[in-house]
């Protein structure tokens, strides 16, 4: 597995943050004037942005996390559902399956009624793949989990079409069958930040497992593939010790900027 470079991390993180904005002006970030297609959810709200430039072979699919009460409730659908319609051999979190299979309301003049989110994405990506472009999937929270599944489904239909998968604060989306059949573990980077509780969800050990390389940003360092039990233990210890950490002199020194320079 190649390393995730800093400029790549920063770019994907910025795009995941911007995905929550009502408008994303893609030309400000190096994409072509016509290099954006938006995929709406069942409510007609943007869920996925497909971004590309003329001078790059990389297309970036950015997937937003839960952003309305209905989608937040879907996170509770922790039973699993088979993904035969996506050409996958495994079962995934039923709520995430629903997000992928929900009807996508038209946004572009070429969009038609009756297509699922997955079908709409495939329709948009096919001509870009014919141009020789490769696809990077990135997403935050449930958007990261959905991105892994969509990337794997695309890789089955178009081998070697996926460049990498980078997720932020992603919950697990499947269990042992996913770990066995998921083809992109060597291209998947799962970024966890400090004590992010969502990265431990769903709270069903064994039934839900993570795939790919984990990068844990913690205490000013990057830890790779820290076991979940160890990471949870450190997190709990940090929660317990946090009130006492404010007593350290380093905290007082760090806050010197509150005082005037005189």
From TrEMBL:
UniProt xrefs under InterPro entries: AB_hydrolase_fold, Fungal_lipase-type, Sec_MonoDiacylglyc_Lipase
One protein family per Pfam: Lipase_3
Fungal lipase-type domain mapped to chain residues: 60-203
PANTHER family: ALPHA/BETA-HYDROLASES SUPERFAMILY PROTEIN, FUNGAL LIPASE-LIKE DOMAIN-CONTAINING PROTEIN
Protein name in UniProt: Lipase
Originating organism: Vibrio japonicus
